[in-house]
Amino acid sequence: MPEARVAIDLDVPGPTISRHLYGHFAEHLGRCIYGGFYVGEDSPIPNEGGIRLDVVEALRALNIPNLRWPGGCFADEYHWKDGIGPKSDRPSMVNTHWGNVEENNHFGTHEFMALCELLGAAPYVNGNVGSGTVREMSEWVEYLTRDGDSPMVRQRKANGRDEPWQVPFWGIGNEAWGCGGNLRAEAYADLARQYATYLKDHGDNKLYRIAAGASNDDLAWTEALLKAVSCLGCGRDPKNIYQAISFHYYTVAGSWENKGSATEFSVDDYYRTMSKAQDIERIIRAHSALMDAYDPERKIGLVLDEWGTWWDVEPGTNPGFLYQQNAMRDALVASLHFDVFHRHAERLVMANIAQTVNVLQAMLLTDDEGGLVRTPTYHVFEMNKGHQDATSVPVHVIEPTTYDLDGKAMDLVSASASVKDGRALVSVSNLDPTASLDVVLDLRGGSPSEVTGRLLTASKPQTYNTVADPDAVAPVPLKLEPEPRGLRVTLPPHSFATVSLVL
């Protein structure tokens, strides 16, 4: 059996892993909002104000830190004033991006804020730049966050909410290079400066303004946003106009026209997927290096507010609804991403998986009869939640195992670790789809007094959960054996594990 050695420096503190790296994304897309989060007050499915309570309960178990809404591409055609006030008075709209369906606007600003309160999550509101106005977004900030007396405050109070909400995160449009306006980078950079100027702090609500950034490794887009607030090598802090720049990266193993099946794939397809997932590290490094040149003190955060696997939709479903299954392979894509996020936590301050319910790499899949499935990806989030707001520590895979993919050596072991409140959490994945792996955890700078382990795997990487078989992929205890310098664990093929240590 192959063996790998992973050295963990428990006493060498690194950057804090923001809990917001475990963020989520809920767009008006398919059955994410309607039929997912929101079933309406008259639904026989237990709900509070129309919000589905079993979904809330499942997500609270993840310590969900933030939720991005209403898009995505939908954000740049959404006009928030159509989604407030009595539901009977709200005009309907056409969701032109996702299925060309009509929506009744019954899930709007107040419903989203109620959802965030039920989840205990910070709201991340994405504003409309593509078809909206500066005034429209500015008034949305005022409506949500201002106290006292003003036209927007009076309107909010008339709609049943006296006290303002805390809404820290604001996105200045979405994918402005594409569905958000097909803008040139310099043109959008000017708009981002303008919009951000009129997104005001009201009272003690301090805005974290996020400029809509690049697709994948489009460094020219990122540089245009940096040039708009800073200068190369000048040594000055960037202008405090927007506080972060985003980018998007999806793991697409095939082509955009033929992405492949979520559950029917070959070993070669599996390896290509893992290689695409690992490429997120190269992309984060590239954006970070560019940002370090313009912002050496790292005043501006990097935000990956859309990430995850993207497959062909399930047969027989609306292609505009992006409904896909979620297998053990998807869980390993998530575990890989989190290891990378932990290593780059000094610059990467937020990430949002796409999407939370019933769309793309979802945490949960629901049906209209009350069925709810926790996906394999859900379990990675739950097993990893101890990393939230913990201190990252260095991890070195000293004796790696690799696979030759098209002449390139691909690592088959991925790991990261953190410490918090006298405990350490180690995450490790065996990406080999066919062979088990012995892993020696070489624990340096700390002697654990108590250890426990959990394992997530399945009979094959194509395995997924259903209403009929909800625990086909679910965590089980992991056997741990003492070693002179730490612990030994045996990881089955295509598996993810966490080891918790009391220090």
Automatic annotation (TrEMBL):
<dbReference type="InterPro" id="IPR055235">
    <property type="entry name" value="ASD1_cat"/>
</dbReference>
<protein>
    <recommendedName>
        <fullName>non-reducing end alpha-L-arabinofuranosidase</fullName>
        <ecNumber>3.2.1.55</ecNumber>
    </recommendedName>
</protein>
<dbReference type="InterPro" id="IPR013780">
    <property type="entry name" value="Glyco_hydro_b"/>
</dbReference>
<comment type="similarity">
    <text>Belongs to the glycosyl hydrolase 51 family.</text>
</comment>
<dbReference type="InterPro" id="IPR017853">
    <property type="entry name" value="GH"/>
</dbReference>
<comment type="subunit">
    <text>Homohexamer; trimer of dimers.</text>
</comment>
<dbReference type="InterPro" id="IPR010720">
    <property type="entry name" value="Alpha-L-AF_C"/>
</dbReference>
<feature type="domain" description="Alpha-L-arabinofuranosidase C-terminal">
    <location>
        <begin position="305"/>
        <end position="495"/>
    </location>
</feature>
<dbReference type="Pfam" id="PF22848">
    <property type="entry name" value="ASD1_dom"/>
</dbReference>
<dbReference type="GO" id="GO:0046373">
    <property type="term" value="P:L-arabinose metabolic process"/>
</dbReference>
<keyword id="KW-0119">Carbohydrate metabolism</keyword>
<dbReference type="GO" id="GO:0000272">
    <property type="term" value="P:polysaccharide catabolic process"/>
</dbReference>
<keyword id="KW-0378">Hydrolase</keyword>
<dbReference type="Pfam" id="PF06964">
    <property type="entry name" value="Alpha-L-AF_C"/>
</dbReference>
<dbReference type="GO" id="GO:0046556">
    <property type="term" value="F:alpha-L-arabinofuranosidase activity"/>
</dbReference>
<keyword id="KW-0326">Glycosidase</keyword>
